[in-house]
Design goal:
By secondary structure, the chain is mostly helical. The protein folds into 2 domains: 133 residues, Ribonuclease iii, N-terminal Endonuclease Domain, Chain A; 66 residues, Double Stranded RNA Binding Domain. It is 58% helix and 11% strand. Strands 1-2-3 form a 3-stranded antiparallel β-sheet. Strand 1 and strand 2 form a beta hairpin.
Length: 214
C-alpha cells in the first residue's frame, strides 16, 4: 500500500522504547489510539451489514474477538510487522519484534495511519484484505460475500445482474494491486481494489451496496 504521507508509516512502526533512545522521534501511541477506534467502527459496520440477524450482544462478542489483542498480535505476525518495527536496544534484545502486544499495537497504529492518509474507504479495503482469514475463523468459515448480496439486491429490484471489469493491475508481483469496477446496465455502481481480482470485486460490490443504500 502506497502512502501519500510516508511519515505516517514510520510513526506507526515506532515503539516508545525507540523514542526514549532517540529524542525527537514520535512513537506510535497516538496512532494506536486512533486506529483502535477506527478499527472498531469498521469491524462493527462489517458485522452489521453481513449478519443482519445478529443481536447487539452477538455483534459485540464477535467484534471483541476480531479486534482482541491476541487476534491483532497474530495478524501482526502474519503481516511480518515485527521486521519493520523501530525498537530501542533493550526492547530489541528481549524479543520485542515477536512480542504479541507490540505487534497488536502496530496493527492498530497502521490502521490509524491508513485512516489519516486514505480515509475510511482505505481502512475498509485494508480490513477486507488483511482480516480475511480471521473473518473466516470467527464467522465459521464464512467471509463477507458482498458480490452475492449485491446480486440478491439487484434481482429483488428487477435490475440486470452486475458485471465486473478489471480496470488496472499495478505494483510488483509480490504486492500486486487490482482495481475493478462493477456495472449494472450502463451505470457504474462502484469501484474497489484488492491484492487479488476476487478481493477487488468484493470491495467493488460493497461500494455498490453502499451507493444503493444497502
Amino acid at each position: 500500500m502506497r502512502f501519500k504521507n510516508p511519515a505516517l508509516v514510520e510513526e506507526a512502526l515506532t515503539h516508545t522504547s525507540f523514542c526514549h533512545e532517540n529524542p525527537g522521534s514520535v512513537s506510535n501511541e497516538r496512532l494506536e489510539f486512533l486506529g483502535d477506534a477506527v478499527l472498531g467502527l469498521v469491524v462493527a459496520e462489517e458485522l452489521f451489514q453481513i449478519r443482519p440477524a445478529l443481536s447487539e450482544g452477538d455483534m459485540t462478542q464477535l467484534r471483541a474477538s476480531l479486534v482482541s489483542g491476541e487476534a491483532l498480535g497474530k495478524l501482526g505476525a502474519t503481516l511480518r510487522l515485527g521486521e519493520h518495527l523501530r525498537l530501542g536496544k533493550g526492547e530489541e534484545v528481549t524479543g520485542g519484534r515477536e512480542r504479541p502486544s507490540n505487534l497488536a499495537r502496530a496493527v492498530e497504529a497502521v490502521v490509524g495511519a491508513i485512516y489519516l492518509d486514505k480515509g475510511l474507504d482505505g481502512v475498509r479495503s485494508y480490513v477486507d484484505r488483511a482480516f480475511k482469514e480471521e473473518w473466516e475463523r470467527v464467522l465459521g468459515g464464512e467471509a463477507p460475500d458482498y458480490k452475492s448480496r449485491l446480486q440478491e439486491v439487484l434481482q429483488a429490484r428487477g435490475e440486470p445482474l452486475p458485471r465486473y471489469r478489471l480496470l488496472e493491475q499495478a505494483g510488483p508481483g509480490h504486492a500486486r494491486r487490482f482495481t475493478v469496477e462493477v456495472r449494472v446496465g450502463r451505470r457504474t455502481l462502484g469501484r474497489g481494489q484488492g491484492s487479488g481480482k476476487k478481493r477487488a470485486e468484493q470491495t467493488a460490490a460493497r461500494s455498490a451496496l453502499q451507493k444503493l443504500g444497502e
